[in-house]
Amino acid sequence: MEFQLLHQDASSAARRGRLTTAHGTIDTPAFMAVGTRASVKGLTPAMLGEAGCQIILANTYHLMLRPGPETVHTLGGLQKFSGWNRPMLTDSGGFQVFSLSDLRAFDPDGVTFKSHIDGSLVRLTPQESMRIQHLLGADIAMAFDDCPPADCPSERLQAAMDRTIRWAKICKDEHERLVAQLPTSNFQLPTSQSLFAIVQGGTDPAQRARCAAELTALDFPGYAIGGLAVGEGHDRMVQTIAATAPLLPAHKPRYLMGVGYPRDILEAVKLGVDMFDCVLPTRNGRNALAFTYQGTMRLRNAKYATDPRPLEAGCDCYCCRHFSRGYLRHLFSVQEMLGPTLVSLHNVRFFQRWMLDIRNAINDNALSVLTAPGEAGALDVER
Ligand SMILES: [Zn+2]
Asked: Annotated catalytic residue: which of 9, 91, 274, 357?
């Protein structure tokens, strides 16, 4: 993997870059659509490509439970399995273990938890997360971390930090060992897989600084800021990014996990963040909520019943080129599956258009005058 810095913004820490992986290049700042179970809900890889997506995220936790990493591996790895032959990233499973599963039990070596699907006991360790992500075969894997809740006591935060740092070292050793192994199956193992570390620390600047110092000393090819957008509130999130991003190596990609709204992305870009992911485009799309530059639209609203206009004037997506607001409202009214697909497609394209605007503004040294979509006021929904 190679990360090139192409342009540094004159008025902020924002930068234009290009990340090159074995499956293609990613223009940064970049937004990753989320394909939780190796599928971006309702959208085909062809739709994602046409919408401008360059990299998709998949969730290790979900894929380890179903269909299991060996099955994905047998079917050729994530790209071949999902039909998305471009860059992919897998998270470590840490976030879902701590947010979805019941009955977590920590020990120094890992965590044992109850599957949210059938209640069976599952164990995840740094080594096991590396083994699973290696079998899944994404271009970028993430170190297994402990992601504590936003409002946890300081002892819990301290323990999570200690674990995250210790586990990152184990993940790095295990990842290097796996990558060095010769191919053992009938398809090319991901010898080009890169491992990113995740800086935790809640909203405590001292903990963030300690975690960043320990992890950057290990010389990972990229760094994520994790544990944000978990209920800490916008201001504390931005303060934490501002305190953490400058501590990460300037010549390596910085990835803010699970963020977010267009306004949050713009602020984080200005603080030097290069990569983002969020379920918002598809989750909102499935619920008839459309993002536009004028604000968020709720398509179930009766006022759209006979509206002949596209979702958003000027949008070049397939949905806006072919369908009216009235038709989209009808699809949701009668629960046709095409409705969630079309609005998800528009939303995914909307986020790619927003990232393109951000990248162009950085190139033009015009980021300071760029305003986030919908800032003038939501059409139908308050944020
Ligand atoms: Zn559109």
From this structure: 91
